[in-house]
Write a structure and sequence with these properties.
single chain, 296 residues, alpha/beta, 7 strands, 48% helix, binds 5-O-phosphono-beta-D-ribofuranosylamine
Length: 296
C-alpha cells in the first residue's frame, strides 16, 4: 500500500511518512476545531447539526492540513494536493498547458501515444509517472512488433494498442486517422525502431519526441540502436556517454535537442553495463522531461 502511495504521489519513503503524519495531525486538528466551533451555531434538529458539522469540517480541513504541513516541510505538496481536489470538484482556476489538445474535447487533457517496439521499460516508467496525472493520459501504445514486451505492459495497464504494419506506416496514411480517432495530442518514441514518416511529422509538428541512448549528435543515425551504440562508445574509448531527448524530424536522431544527461564510463565498462546505466538515466529523466515539456 505504501509503495502504491509513493508511486501515486511520486515521493520517497521519508517524505511519505511526513505526508501521512500531516494528514493524521491535520485531520485530528480539524475534528477538534469543528467541535469547538459547533456551539457557536444554535442549531435545532440533529440532522441540521450533522450537515453544519460536515460543512465546517470540509472548510476547516484544508486550512488545518496546510498549517500542519508547514512545520513538516510539506506545504508545497499539500497546496498542490488541495488545488487538485479543488479543480476536481470544479473550484479554482485550472492551469493552462503548453501543448493544447488539438481535439475538441476536455480541452485541458493531453493524450500521449507511446511508440515502442521493444521491452518497453521506458514506456512502463512513463505510464507509472502519469498514472494519476490530472491532465496527461497515456492514450495509446503504438508498436510494429506483435511479440514486443511493451504490448504485455499495455494489456496489463489497460491501455489501447495499435499494432502497425510497415507497409501502411510508410506507404499508407501513417496511421494519422487512428491517432486522431484516439485523440492523440503528443507522440513519445521510446525504443521505436521505424523512421517516422514525413506525413506524421507534418501532422504533429513539434509534438513528437524521441530518446536516444547516447550523447547526440555523436553515435546516432541509422543502425545506431541497442548494443551497437554502447559498443561504438566503448570502442571509441569515450569517457562519457549519456542520454539525449530530442524533437523528431525527417532524419534519424537529428531533431533539436531538448535535454541531455551524462554518465562517466567506468574503467571496465562493457556494452551491457553501459546499457544498464543508460537505462537508469532514461527512466529517471524521460517522464519528467515529458511532463515539463507539456507544461512549458
Ligand atoms: C532505450 O534505450 C532508448 O534510448 C532507445 O531504445 C531503448 C528502449 O528501451 N531509443 P526500452 O524498450 O524502453 O527498455
Amino acid at each position: 500500500m505504501f509503495e502504491r502511495l509513493q508511486q501515486k504521489w511520486k515521493v520517497k519513503g521519508g517524505q511519505l511518512a511526513l505526508i501521512l503524519i500531516t494528514f493524521a495531525v491535520g485531520g485530528s486538528l480539524t475534528g477538534y476545531a469543528a467541535r469547538q466551533l459547533m456551539p457557536v451555531f444554535a442549531i435545532g434538529p440533529a440532522w441540521l447539526w450533522i450537515v453544519v458539522y460536515i460543512l465546517l469540517v470540509t472548510l476547516l480541513w484544508p486550512i488545518a492540513v496546510l498549517l500542519i504541513s508547514i512545520p513538516f516541510g510539506q506545504f508545497p505538496f499539500f497546496i498542490k494536493y488541495i488545488k487538485k481536489i479543488g479543480a476536481r470538484i470544479g473550484l479554482g482556476k485550472r492551469q493552462e498547458s503548453g501543448v493544447r489538445s488539438s481535439h475538441n474535447r476536455e480541452p485541458l487533457q493531453i493524450h500521449i501515444a507511446i511508440f515502442a517496439s521493444g521491452a518497453g521499460s521506458n514506456a512502463q516508467k512513463i505510464i507509472d509517472h502519469f498514472r494519476d496525472h490530472e491532465k496527461i493520459r497515456i492514450g495509446l501504445i503504438v508498436c510494429n512488433n506483435p511479440s514486443a514486451g511493451v504490448l504485455s505492459i499495455a494489456s496489463r495497464e489497460g491501455i489501447p494498442t495499435l499494432v502497425i504494419s510497415k507497409e501502411q506506416f510508410f506507404r499508407g496514411d501513417a496511421y494519422i486517422k487512428e491517432l486522431n480517432e484516439n485523440k492523440i495530442d503528443f507522440i513519445v518514441l521510446a525504443g521505436f525502431l521505424l523512421k517516422i514518416p514525413v506525413a506524421l511529422i507534418k501532422a504533429y509538428p513539434g509534438k513528437i519526441i524521441n530518446i536516444h541512448p547516447a550523447l547526440l549528435p555523436r553515435y546516432g543515425g541509422k543502425g545506431m540502436y541497442g548494443r551497437a551504440v554502447h559498443q561504438a562508445v566503448i570502442d571509441a574509448k569515450e569517457k562519457k556517454s549519456g542520454i539525449t531527448i530530442h524533437y523528431v524530424d525527417e532524419l534519424y536522431d537529428h531533431g533539436k535537442i531538448i535535454f541531455q544527461a551524462h554518465y562517466d564510463l567506468g574503467a571496465d565498462e562493457t556494452p551491457q553495463s553501459l546499457a544498464e546505466q543508460i537505462h537508469k538515466l532514461e527512466h529517471e529523466h524521460y517522464p519528467r522531461v515529458i511532463e515539463k515539456l507539456l507544461k512549458a
